[in-house]
User: Which sequence fits this backbone?
């Protein structure tokens, strides 16, 4: 936890006389007042909402005879209205976290109601459609209330839709998954931007990564891997080149766009390693991979720690791969360990040099390109 | 401790009413689209077939199989797709002397309604043509009536009846060909009350 580290550092600085103890307390107070600060209370409130929603879902599965099904349906619709009404009332009173929890419960009740209708009429075989309706309901709630919690739930439901469709059809020959995954990712990104639920952004990006892997699974060919690499490179350059018109937009979403584009590029290159077979291609691919890693470090190494570490990892993995392919067979196992040790030492030296450079730049506050 | 609230474009009360109204309307539409089939659909009676694996009690519902789920290639008329992909089949059902209905004709295009018969639409299924683009010997389809939800712990009785071939269902078929279970019969007697709502 950052707060724990901060407190330790502040105490250490106070003990060394760098800052006076009163300032340390004030700094910590300021951190605790920030909205983004981790709050056990907020997490517990949302967990409570999830448990309550789950209880209602289970209540539907059981208690078949006890309540007539029309009454059960009316009851759950009543719960939906109550949850949203409570959310509105709590928002009016400024109890933002409780209001968010009420919205999470409302969205879960809506899912329970969909399941209940399916049970009432013995529906089978259309799980994807039911999940899509649930996702749509969650998105509508997130939009109307500008709710971060509901936006996050929508992000998870997008995965549920894809998962259900995937297990139903074992492929994308029906084209449904092909279109819905990027559409849902776009909806989630839109909600993230509108509500400010920055953490949920990763769900959308991960959905797109999963979509790309499914695409490759459907069309496993070198051309697909090349396309993935090319699109990843193009997106990365658009997100991080200083001259790119999209750079300000990408930068407004933090480190994520450049990182996931770079990840796409690295995934494409990694797949290509399995597709090639000639020594010349292997060498070319090695040069391209190493240049991509160095390019990533050069372009966004200073501002984007996530890209930097991914680039280090790609660089180290590629160097070891090339060493094992070229020298491994000549030197035998012990010789290969020797080479690996030297390679890792060289990469470590490079990383230490770069990290020092970046921190010097950060300290002197040089203007960002 | 209160946290800074983001600016709202919609008043919370308005948002609450709008969200609840939209979701209620969606649920109402789902219910009514099924109730209308039960009210005014054409009734067919189907014998259930044992399913494999035989004791597939999935929690709180019984999996049902039907003879009309296996469509012989011989009764398929009209154009046949040559490439694999998701397809829908329209199946004409006709009654036999014992009151049970069976498939008499099937087509990849909608079939016209004929007196004395009912046209049902299958759920989309993955279709793979044979080696030379020909129709497979049998097509396995589903109609969205393959589950029957039962109270906790009561599924076993229905499963045994199903495996003993003494389970029948009455289904209603909507104008678009959508099938909807109306009633389940064990040894000819209704097993559960099924209200419209």
Assistant:
């Amino acid at each position: 936890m950052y707060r724990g580290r901060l407190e330790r550092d502040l105490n250490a600085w106070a003990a060394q006389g760098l800052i006076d103890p009163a300032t340390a307390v004030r700094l910590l107070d300021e951190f605790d007042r920030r909205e983004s600060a981790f709050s056990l209370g907020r997490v517990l409130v949302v967990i409570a909402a999830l448990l309550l929603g789950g209880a209602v879902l289970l209540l539907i599965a059981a208690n078949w005879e006890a309540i007539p099904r029309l009454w059960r349906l009316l009851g759950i619709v009543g719960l939906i209205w109550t949850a949203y009404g409570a959310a509105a009332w709590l928002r009016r009173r400024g109890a933002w976290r409780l209001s968010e929890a009420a919205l999470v419960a409302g969205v879960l009740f809506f899912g329970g109601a969909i399941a209940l209708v399916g049970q009432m009429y013995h529906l089978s075989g259309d799980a994807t459609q039911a999940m899509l309706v649930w996702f749509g309901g969650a998105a509508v709630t997130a939009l109307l209330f500008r709710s971060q919690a509901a936006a996050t739930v929508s992000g998870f439901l997008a995965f549920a839709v894809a998962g259900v469709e995937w297990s139903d059809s074992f492929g994308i020959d029906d084209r449904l998954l092909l279109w819905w995954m990027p559409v849902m990712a776009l909806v989630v990104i839109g909600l993230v931007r509108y509500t400010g639920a920055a953490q949920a952004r990763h769900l959308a990006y991960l959905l797109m990564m999963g979509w790309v892997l499914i695409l490759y699974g459907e069309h496993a060919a070198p051309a697909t891997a090349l396309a993935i690499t090319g699109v990843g490179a193009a997106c990365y350059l658009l997100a991080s080149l200083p001259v790119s018109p999209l750079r300000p937009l990408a930068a407004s979403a933090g480190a994520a766009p450049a990182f996931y584009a770079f990840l796409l590029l690295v995934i494409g290159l990694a797949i290509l390693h399995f597709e090639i077979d000639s020594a010349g291609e292997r060498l070319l691919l090695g040069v391209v991979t190493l240049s991509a890693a160095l390019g990533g470090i050069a372009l966004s190494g200073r501002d984007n720690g996530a890209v930097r570490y991914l680039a280090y990892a790609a660089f180290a993995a590629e160097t070891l791969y090339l060493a094992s392919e070229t020298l491994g067979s000549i030197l035998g196992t012990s010789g290969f360990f020797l080479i690996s040790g030297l390679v890792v030492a060289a990469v470590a030296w490079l990383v230490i040099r770069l990290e020092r450079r970046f921190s010097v730049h950060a300290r002197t506050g040089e203007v960002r390109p | 401790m209160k946290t800074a609230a983001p600016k709202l474009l919609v008043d919370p009360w308005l948002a609450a009413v709008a969200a609840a109204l939209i979701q209620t309307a969606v649920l109402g539409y789902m219910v009514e689209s099924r109730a209308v089939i039960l009210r005014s659909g054409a009734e067919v009676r189907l014998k259930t077939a044992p399913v494999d694996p035989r004791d597939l009690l999935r929690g709180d519902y019984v999996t049902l199989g039907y003879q009309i789920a296996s469509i012989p290639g011989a009764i398929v008329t009209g154009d046949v797709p040559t490439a694999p992909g998701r397809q829908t089949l329209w199946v004409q059902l006709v009654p036999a002397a014992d009151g049970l209905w069976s498939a008499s004709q099937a087509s990849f295009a909608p079939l016209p309604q004929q007196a004395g018969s009912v046209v049902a639409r299958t759920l989309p299924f993955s279709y793979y043509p044979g080696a030379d683009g020909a129709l497979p010997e049998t097509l396995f389809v589903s109609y969205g009536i393959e589950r029957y939800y039962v109270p906790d712990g009561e599924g076993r009785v229905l499963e045994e009846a199903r495996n003993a071939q003494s389970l029948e269902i009455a289904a209603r078929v909507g104008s678009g060909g959508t099938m909807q279970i109306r009633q389940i019969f064990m040894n000819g007697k209704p097993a559960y009350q099924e209200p419209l709502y």
Summary: The two ends of chain A are 31 Å apart (CA to CA).
